[in-house]
Amino acid sequence: MDDLELLSDDHSLLGSQVVHLVAMLRTLVEGDFETGPLHSEINRQAQLLSSQLVEHFEFEEITAFPRLEQRFPKLSSQLQALTAQHDEILEAFEAMRADLRLELSQLKKVDIVSKASFFESTFGQHADSESQLFAVMATRVSGFEEPR
Questions:
Q1: What pLDDT, in 10s, does the model give residues 58-96?
Q2: What Cα–Cα distance (Å) separates residue 105 from each residue in 32, 99, 138, 145?
Q3: What is the C-alpha separation between 55 and 116, in angstroms, rounded?
Q4: 32-65 confidence digits (pLDDT tens)
């Protein structure tokens, strides 16, 4: 199913951006580079990622998941659970971004790294869960579909 591949590809792209952002943040707190420009770039990347996450989640919630629920009604509860995780991911992301908006002198390194790690982990677990569910759906579409 092409839609499942598209969603999986989107997860891969978003996942790489999450990893990149968190890696830049860790570099910032380690102080290996001039921190002012890096801090600005991290905030710019975070703004881009924010809009991409919101757009991706909206597409899933408004378009993709309702269609998948119609096609795979037995998996409806799993799709609804994944939808509920979107808010958790965005909350974790915004908690990290709130700290990023602080002046560098006000940043608490342990707090920001902890929040970034939590966001990265939350997103990663969610993407893995979706990928596993999409794999089940793809198998059913390939001719091994259960009767409804």
A1: 999 999 999 999 999 999 999 999 999 999 999 999 999
A2: 16, 11, 50, 57
A3: 21
A4: 667 888 889 999 999 999 999 999 999 999 999 9
Cα–chain-centroid distance for residue 107? Answer: 24
CA distance 88 to 119: 9
Give the whole-angstrom CA distance, residue 47 versus residue 100: 11
**Distances from the Cα of 136 to the Cα of 7, 8, 78, angstroms:** 14, 13, 12
> What are the angstrom distances between the C-alpha of 109 and each of 29, 102, 104?
6, 12, 10
Q: Go through the domains of the chain in sequence order and give each one's CATH number.
A: 2-142 (1.20.120.520)
